[in-house]
Design a protein that fits this description.
The chain is α/β, with parallel strands linked by helices. The protein has 3 domains: about 5-230, Rossmann fold (3-Layer(aba) Sandwich); about 240-350, Rossmann fold (3-Layer(aba) Sandwich); about 380-560, Rossmann fold, CATH 3.40.50.970. The protein has helices at about 15-25, 40-55, 65-80, 90-105, 130-140, 150-165, 175-180, 205, 210-230, 255-265, 285-290, 305-315, 340-350, 380-395, 430-440, 450-465, 505-515, 525-540, 555-560; strands at about 10-15, 30-35, 60-65, 85-90, 110-120, 140-145, 170-175, 180-185, 240, 245-250, 270-275, 275-280, 295-300, 325, 400, 445-450, 475-480, 520, 545-550. Helix 14 (about 380-395) crosses helix 18 (about 525-540). The chain is globular and about 75 Å long.
């Protein structure tokens, strides 16, 4: 039995924020879930995957080929009356946004939750976009937990809210709320879970041709006004204190603010507004808050999402209140916050002494050595890079080569001693950018993409490259898993976790199916053969694909090499 299926109602468990979301989905009766793995959301999908695989709970889960597909799977299940969930990291929402914008119009029948996990400071990401903007962009309700307990509670609430409004609901976390561990009280598991629904045909709702979409847009705006009323009365929005300095915060920043108020001893000087149901903005609560205070400090990571809204409300009310935050330099629009940063800002606004403890003298200690991330010892990608480099060197092309790369652990080919990553935008961009370089330059182009990323968004780009006669060599690094995010399966895996028996799509068959003739396979550990093959391929000026097949060392050990 999976530990997140415990029936110890009322007992507390020490859970990650992501694990708490899974428990919340189970308690809420979710029966369908789909995802593409992405840190910091990966533990949600991983736990749902193993719960589904073990068969102890009525749950269907799939690792879809990308976030767009995952959202479509979850959306159609909810349209048929079955509660569903999809989760993704912040940049994954970009991939799913084509679905999201119209899904908001057609809505759902059963509850549907969309978890987006943002990554301030880019611990494992190529940007730190603020996905709160997507709630406003798509016109969908959004909840933001501050702790694992709230993560579970808000997930349950999000399903109920979604069902009452017939709209998907966004639960937005950040790295700190996803990966913090805290006590979570277990609620009861449902006695029955609705696994099968009935889709009621209604083309004037579910098929958004322009005439339908115009009507559904009006419905969406009406439902969001109802959502605003629910936000006003939500238990996740609360106000405390009676001081004249107002502080507004949401997400993990709430924890920093609460600690700072207590440690600075300014409880009598501040009124603290904690927001958990953050969109649509609870305007009445904000107006009441503004009237109680003389000045406002907004504590929020990344964009001034709430700060700008509060300024607008102040203007509409005719209340000239100074609003401190990002525009005033109290906080940055970059990177995640820390407790000291928040404490300093609150001390500055309230005019109290900071009284920091004296730091010990560490001047006699040597600086810590840098420990950058690197490819694992024995990783097959190392051998592939070395084979390409040696082949180019022998051909006299090494100085002329461009290496577009992609999202995966092989992105670490950027670092010494490999240094074979020159250009990167997003998942699958290695193929499309190689096409651009082939048109705009006379360089030799060798691009790299992983097996999971290839299925995610490389296939369509490669079809375009072949059709438009671009000339480059694409190296598909097939290590039989989605390694970077924790060894999740993809359609091409040969080594599989126990019980995973879904059909395999060999990458070579998929590539040849596009019409590409110059397709080769190598074992990167057979160095002489690999170098000879790359010399042959790279000597030609044409589109070619080399599939470097060798399992991830850690994944191979994990499953004992069993197929």
């Amino acid at each position: 039995m999976h530990p997140l299926l415990s029936k110890d109602t009322g007992q507390k468990r020490l859970l990650l924020g992501n694990e708490a979301i899974v428990r919340g989905a189970i308690e809420a009766g979710a029966a369908v879930a789909a995802a593409y793995p992405g840190t910091p959301s990966s533990e949600i999908a991983n736990n749902l995957f193993f719960i589904s695989l073990q068969g102890d709970w009525p749950l269907y889960f799939e690792f879809s080929t990308n976030e767009k597909v995952a959202m479509e799977v979850a959306a159609s299940a909810a349209a048929a009356g079955v509660r569903s969930l999809t989760c993704m990291k912040h940049v994954g929402m970009n991939v799913a946004s084509d679905v999201l914008m119209t899904l908001a119009y057609v809505g759902v029948k059963a509850g549907m939750v969309i978890v987006t996990a943002d990554d301030p400071s880019m611990h494992s990401s190529q940007n730190e976009q603020d996905n709160r903007i997507y709630a406003r962009f798509a016109n969908l309700p959004m909840l933001e937990p501050t702790s694992p307990q709230e993560a579970k509670d808000m997930t349950i609430q999000a399903f109920d809210l979604s069902e009452s409004l017939e709209l998907p609901v966004i639960v937005r976390t950040t790295t700190r709320t996803s990966h913090v561990r805290g006590p979570v009280e277990l609620g009861p598991l449902p006695e029955e879970v609705r696994q099968k629904g009935i889709f009621q045909k209604d083309p004037r709702r579910w098929v958004p041709v322009p005439a339908v979409a115009r009507m559904r847009h009006r419905v969406l705006l009406e439902q969001m006004e109802k959502a605003r009323g629910l936000a006003e009365g939500s238990r996740f929005n609360s106000m405390s204190g009676k001081g004249k300095t107002g502080i507004v915060a949401s997400g993990v920043s709430v924890c920093y603010v609460e600690d700072a108020i207590r440690e600075l001893g300014v409880e009598d000087r501040v009124t603290f507004l904690k927001l958990g149901f953050t969109y649509p903005f609870p305007v009445s609560i904000l107006k009441d808050f503004i009237q109680k205070v003389d000045e406002i400090l907004v504590v929020e990571e990344l964009e001034p999402f709430q700060e700008d809204e509060i300024k607008i409300i102040c203007k509409d009310m005719g209340q000239d209140r100074p609003v401190f935050g990002k525009a005033t330099g109290h906080f940055s629009r970059m990177y995640e916050f820390d407790p000291l940063m928040v404490k300093k800002a609150i001390a500055q606004v309230t005019g109290c002494d900071l009284n920091l403890p004296q730091m010990p003298d560490l001047s006699s200690l040597p600086p810590l050595p840098m420990r950058p991330p690197s490819l694992c010892q024995g990783c097959p990608h190392r051998e592939t890079y070395n084979a390409v480099k040696e082949a180019l060197k022998e051909l006299g092309l090494e100085e002329n080569a461009i290496y577009p790369t992609d999202i995966g652990c092989y992105t670490l080919g950027l670092l010494p001693p490999i240094q074979m990553a020159d250009y990167l935008l997003c998942m699958g961009s290695s193929v499309g950018s190689s096409a651009g370089f082939s048109v705009a330059t006379d360089h030799k182009i060798v691009s790299f993409i992983g097996d999971s990323t290839f299925f995610h968004s490389g296939l369509s780009s490669l079809a375009s490259a072949y059709h438009n006669e671009h000339r480059f060599c694409l190296v598909i690094l097939d290590n039989s898993t989605t390694a970077m995010t924790g060894h999740q399966p993809n359609p091409g895996i040969e080594i599989r976790p126990p019980g995973y028996d879904r059909p395999r799509i060999p990458i070579e068959d998929a590539v040849r199916g596009l019409g590409i003739k110059n397709v080769h396979k190598i074992n990167p550990y057979r160095k002489k053969e690999a170098v000879a093959l790359f010399k042959e391929v790279l000597a030609k000026d044409e589109l070619s694909v080399v599939i470097a097949e060798a399992p991830c060392i850690l994944y191979y050990r994990k499953f004992g090499g069993k197929k």
